[in-house]
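Minutes, structural biology subgroup

Action item carried over from last meeting: produce the structure token record for LPXTG-motif cell wall-anchored protein (Pseudonocardia alni subsp. carboxydivorans). EB confirmed the sequence was re-checked against the source entry. Recorded below for completeness.
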Amino acid sequence: MSELLTTVPVDVADEVLATTGIGSPLAWQVVSLLALLSALVVLVRWWLHQRRR
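Output recorded by EB:
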């Protein structure tokens, strides 16, 4: 019984990734690009705030 419970969440997660397309490399590239851009925006805003002082 415990073996069944431990394998079910993995199967569900794999199914969700397969049906939503989150597992595709292009989606991960887009997500990482957005994360990089948001980090850059935060860095630029911090730098501008430091210059105003």
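Discussion: The longest helix spans residues 25-52.
Next step: EB to file the record with the rest of the batch.
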